[in-house]
Amino acid sequence: MERDEASTFAGRSLQVENARAPDRRYDCLDDAARLARRYLDGLRDRPVHAKTGLDELRAVLAHPLTDEGEDPSVIVESLACDVDPGLVASGGPRYFGFVIGGAVPAAVAADWLVSAWDQNGGGFVASPALSVVEEVAATWIRELLGVPASSGVGFVTGGQMANFTCLAAARHAVLRDAGWDVEAHGLHGAPRVRVLAGEYAHVTIGVACRLLGLGQLVDVVPADDQGRMRADALRDALAGGTGDPTIVCAQAGEINTGAFDPFVDIARICREHRAWLHVDGAFGLWAAASPRRRTLLAGAEQAHSWATDGHKWLNVPYDCGIAVVADPRAHRAAMTSTQAYVPAHADDVPYGFDWTPEFSRRARGVTVYAALRQLGRQGLTDLVDRCCDHARLIARRLAAEPGIDILNDVVLNQVLVRFGDDDALTDTVIEQVQRDGVCWLAGSTFRGRRVMRISVVGWQTTPADAHRSAEAILTAARAAGG
d(Cα 175, Cα 191) in Å, to the nearest integer? Predict the structure, then answer.
């Protein structure tokens, strides 16, 4: 072999060898996987509360920003160490605050891949594969929730943006029917849109209306003692209207009691008055997955739109909300956006920005796809039923103790507890349970009284966790004199 040929061959061999050598720049990914696994492995036995406070976290995390940068592995190790004392074990089996679920393993792993792939989930041209994954996930969601197969589905950040997206579609439709194109002309000079919601509607309904220019002061419809909208009061409110374009916001799973509005009656009344019916079902909509509990949703399938969360009962990582609209034309008209550089596409080509307010976003539907594949139909049913059964178990244990009252009908996964019929005592017990760290639950106010609010939505919770948590609550109540 001539010298030049040998040099060329050696150079090519070196290139092949370098191509096969691992890229050390990504060692931090292995570090992150190891540290994440260590955290998850310890989640069951970890105190549920954070172990440090605001000042300490600021002191340890406020590193000076360097000029030259730092080694990625050092950053990952340092970050995991520094944040650990300030983490709340919300993904664990005894976290019952704010209706926050955990994340099933397949969804966590899929979320890592979504970050590694770094695809813009906004449209097919930017990420063909992930657009189809989301398309499949949307099909499964429609089927599981029992909504029309032709409904539009958008994967958004959470319940706030799911309600926003659905109410934007509602605004379009009711104004269109009144002869006004709100996307073209805005709201100045448009007919007034009347929005009615129950007395205990979630705050995100009012915020969505405010962001849409409809005003945050919706017309409030009285509710019963469980927080359910009264159908007779809705009928009276609509009968006394002036014929304005109207949107009615009902609720599946009141945030305190878990109660469901009477959808059969509400849907009939909305049809009579040609009102758009929206259902806010951030966690309650998943009752559709349970044959034992889907009757709670009877009539909800007649609504025009539905909002729910994946990062609650479906147990996918934050963030994931889901907006569903029965009329895909109204959904697209309110959301779709384009530019000259975006290829024109047929309606059946999956483009995420046709269904969400965001032009660029992560492919949130991938975690939904992974979670549903791991759980399957029966797994999702079992998850919903287990959580509801655990809530009832805790309620029974607490109700058997003198001086402790369960204020709601435990129809789903929510339990409202009051101690000694006293606001101060109730808050004292809540604070003590939070400090003890066996479980974590939140305080709230319902019908003017302070309550302990227990929300069971985590996939890891077992009957043993429910018993252990109930015992921790009872111990704190006895110590406080309840």
Answer: 7
